[in-house]
């Protein structure tokens, strides 16, 4: 398999070279393109007209990008949108120049322009890509898609389903995307929570399965702010990876899986529902009742009976445990938001009261700074172990995402649990993470409730 793939890569490269030799100007067309463009799709039920969205290749979610672990991903972002954009490859331990953060690692790509992304993907797993310029607007309009890095040896399953969960705020009359992105109520509370939930762009996604079939579900929460509590119904399964990173041992999912914004989970599930029945992946609604999300109608029976529990996925190369003995201690205090009692914070070098901040669309602060600062939160030396205490003084949960590196949570004084890139932190809770600063560059650390990031919850670290 590997040999064949390598051969195809070489053959493609050879063809590319031949074309270049004949038409030197065509050399720059070698990268496959990923076009960000406006499109119309039927999101809401048929009684509504189509919704105009922004999507990669005119789709939301965008095309599935699959790359074998250790190989190169190359895409030319072509911007056909009316405003500048960029692409972030969420969860990839990436070359900093390819991280796609407009204003930090690259300039935003102007309408009509393009940018070449070209990098190696070191870790297998379920990742995603999304716009990273004005992301609270652009991701809400649909600019995201799945990025799958394939293990050399994939676990044995009958089929694999990528399930991209999204949450749309649509105008109830027109079915158009509600454009009050900067609404203070959303920014200062739980973020932009929608009124139409979709899986793979459908509010009624149905995936036909056979009884006893074993499926790998790759779940991606691409919504701006919605937290999905998920359950299995008519399915028996295990969590095998979180945020793309394999768990040391699969964990039976018999309760609720919380999937925060930007988080991913890989499940291996066996279909237990009988023929003619329907299994479900429901979400738990605000009323604590299961609400439909993805249906799995069962017809026919797979040849095999249910198998033993799946084994662990192969570990990724960066899957070490940082030693805390000489880790540099850092602290991040998150404050603000509605009912948060934040009195003041610094914006534009000046200390402003909460009302003045609010008037400028700032509702939150990290270590009393209501904006991205000139100075990083920390200036780290390459290879340095770090422990970072995160204090949530607000009355809202947040989804803290570190770019470029993966972390583990510290529990009882030691790094425990799986590697992750996005941590859900509950109201008034303090958590601690540890990681090794092993990727040089400037890396964002922000809340992935995207309107929170825009209204103050964003900082960065430098690794040199
Ligand atoms: Cu998925 Cu800075 O983002
Ligand atoms: Cu937040």
UniProtKB/TrEMBL annotation:
Check the record and name the SUPFAM superfamilies matching this protein: Cupredoxins
| Residue ranges occupied by any Plastocyanin-like domain in the UniProt entry | 42-152, 162-272, 362-463
One Pfam annotation, family name? Cu-oxidase
Region: Disordered, residue numbers: 301-320
Show the stretches that span the lipid bilayer. none
Keyword Translocase found: no
Q: Which UniProt keywords apply?
A: Metal-binding, Oxidoreductase, Signal
Q: Which residues form the signal peptide?
A: 1-26
Protein name (Swiss-Prot/TrEMBL): Oxidoreductase
Q: What organism does the record attribute this protein to?
A: Sinisalibacter lacisalsi
């Amino acid at each position: 398999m590997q040999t064949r793939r390598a051969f195809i890569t070489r053959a493609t490269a050879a063809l590319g070279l031949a074309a270049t030799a004949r038409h030197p100007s065509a050399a720059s067309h070698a990268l496959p393109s990923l076009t960000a463009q406006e499109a119309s799709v039927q999101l809401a039920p048929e009684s509504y007209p189509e919704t105009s969205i922004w999507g990669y290749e005119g789709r939301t979610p965008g095309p599935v990008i699959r790359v074998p672990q250790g190989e190169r991903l190359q895409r030319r972002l072509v911007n056909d949108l009316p405003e500048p954009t960029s692409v972030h490859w969420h969860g990839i331990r990436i070359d900093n120049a390819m991280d796609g953060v407009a204003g930090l690692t690259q300039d935003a790509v102007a309408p009509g322009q393009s940018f070449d992304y070209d990098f190696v993907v070191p870790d297998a797993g379920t990742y995603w890509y999304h716009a990273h310029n004005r992301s609270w607007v652009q991701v809400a309009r649909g600019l995201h898609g799945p990025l799958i890095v394939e293990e050399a040896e994939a676990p044995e399953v009958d089929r694999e389903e990528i399930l991209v969960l999204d949450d749309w705020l649509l105008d109830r009359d027109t079915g158009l995307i509600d454009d009050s992105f900067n609404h203070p109520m959303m920014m200062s509370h739980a973020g932009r929570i929608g009124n139409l939930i979709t899986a793979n762009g459908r509010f009624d996604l149905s995936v036909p399965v056979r009884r006893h079939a074993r499926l790998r579900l790759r779940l991606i929460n691409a919504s701006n702010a919605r937290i999905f509590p998920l359950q299995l119904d008519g399915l028996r399964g295990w969590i095998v990876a979180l945020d793309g990173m394999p768990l040391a041992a699969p964990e039976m999912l018999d309760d609720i899986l919380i999937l925060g914004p930007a988080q991913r989970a890989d499940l291996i599930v066996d279909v237990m529902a009988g023929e003619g029945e329907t299994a479900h992946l429901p979400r738990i609604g605000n009323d604590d009742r299961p609400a439909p999300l993805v249906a799995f109608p069962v017809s026919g029976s797979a040849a095999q009976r249910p198998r033993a529990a799946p084994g662990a996925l192969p570990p990724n190369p960066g899957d070490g445990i940082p030693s805390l003995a000489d880790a540099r201690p850092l602290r991040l205090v998150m404050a603000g938001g509605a009912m948060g009692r934040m009195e003041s914070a610094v914006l534009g070098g000046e200390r402003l009261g909460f009302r003045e901040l609010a008037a400028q669309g700032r509702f939150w602060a990290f270590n009393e700074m209501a904006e991205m600062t000139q100075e990083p939160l920390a200036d780290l030396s390459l290879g340095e172990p770090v422990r970072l205490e995160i204090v949530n003084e607000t009355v809202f949960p947040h989804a803290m995402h570190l770019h470029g590196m993966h972390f583990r949570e510290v529990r009882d004084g030691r790094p425990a649990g799986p590697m992750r890139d996005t941590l859900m932190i509950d109201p008034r809770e303090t958590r601690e993470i540890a990681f090794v600063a092993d990727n040089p560059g400037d890396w964002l650390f922000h809340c992935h409730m995207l309107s929170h990031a825009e209204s103050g919850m964003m900082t960065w670290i430098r690794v040199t």
